Amino acid sequence: MKNNIAIIGGGNLGQAIGSGLLSQGFSAKKLTITRHKTELLSKFKTLGVHVTSNNAEAVKEADVIIIAVKPYKIESVLKEIQPEVKKEHLLISVVSDYSIKEINAHLTSSPTVFRAMPNTASSVNESMTCIASNNAKTKDETVVKSIFDALGTTIRIDESLMDAATVLGACGVAYVLRFIRGMIQGGIEIGFDAKTATDIATQTVKGASELLLQQGNHPEAEIDKVTTPKGCTIAGLNEMEHGGFSSALIKGIKTSYDNISD
């Protein structure tokens, strides 16, 4: 991995990336995180991370630049850091709905540019990160992959699928959490206290995911293992489907995609 990393934008995602890197042994002294209100990054400063509100200064000292600002801020940030961005820099944008072509239009030095879409599970090293670049060298892709592999799992996709990756991988965290919340609420209704219901629901979701990840089966194959004739599982599943469970989820994903693609 290249030496110094600057995360431009220490919001939720920027902090999640920073926390993930540090938890995997990346040196705090080689990490810079920027934010207008630097006091909100005090926990990183305590750990030895360089914290600043000066984006240009952060870029000047970095080998790898990770832009993690809100979409409406990226153009002003690119204009601010442009004088300090060199051809040798590796620039990674985790900003949704802003293409590599648009990024390059604001830079004169032609650095290698990647787009990456991690999610907030970066902070616990369980992110699914999709990365894309138009003409990066293998060595640069290796560097980018090493950064995000420290945060979870990384896959390479075509940039044309980056909006879809945002919806399924990043927005998807919220969908899954809402499902877990529903399980907890149902658990409380049938007799558990909130903490016990939370423990059961979260471990059950984790276990279901591991079944698919480790065994590579289709979800329906695992569902068949727990649905017996006239049993309570199939009765509950059918009731959920009568209520539009799968359809609502698919429609929600499609609506998010239509919104980000507008």
UniProtKB/TrEMBL annotation:
Q: Which UniProt keywords apply?
A: Amino-acid biosynthesis, Cytoplasm, NADP, Oxidoreductase, Proline biosynthesis
Tell me the function of this protein: Catalyzes the reduction of 1-pyrroline-5-carboxylate (PCA) to L-proline.
What's its catalytic activity? Answer: L-proline + NAD(+) = (S)-1-pyrroline-5-carboxylate + NADH + 2 H(+); L-proline + NADP(+) = (S)-1-pyrroline-5-carboxylate + NADPH + 2 H(+)
Superkingdom as given in the UniProt entry: Bacteria
Boundaries of every Pyrroline-5-carboxylate reductase catalytic N-terminal domain copy: 5-95
Q: Which organism is it from?
A: Winogradskyella pelagia
Q: Span of the secretion signal? A: none
Q: Which residues form the Pyrroline-5-carboxylate reductase dimerisation domain?
A: 159-259
**PANTHER family per the UniProt record, alphabetical:** PYRROLINE-5-CARBOXYLATE REDUCTASE (PTHR11645), PYRROLINE-5-CARBOXYLATE REDUCTASE 3 (PTHR11645:SF0)
A GO molecular function held by the record = pyrroline-5-carboxylate reductase activity
Protein's UniProt name: Pyrroline-5-carboxylate reductase
One of this protein's Pfam families, by short name? P5CR_dimer
Q: Which family does it belong to?
A: Belongs to the pyrroline-5-carboxylate reductase family.
This protein's pathway: Amino-acid biosynthesis; L-proline biosynthesis; L-proline from L-glutamate 5-semialdehyde: step 1/1
Subcellular localization: Cytoplasm
Identify the SUPFAM superfamilies for this entry.
6-phosphogluconate dehydrogenase C-terminal domain-like, NAD(P)-binding Rossmann-fold domains
Database matches in InterPro entries: 6-PGluconate_DH-like_C_sf, NAD(P)-bd_dom_sf, P5C_Rdtase_cat_N, P5CR_dimer, Pyrroline-COOH_reductase
Give EC number(s), comma-separated.
1.5.1.2
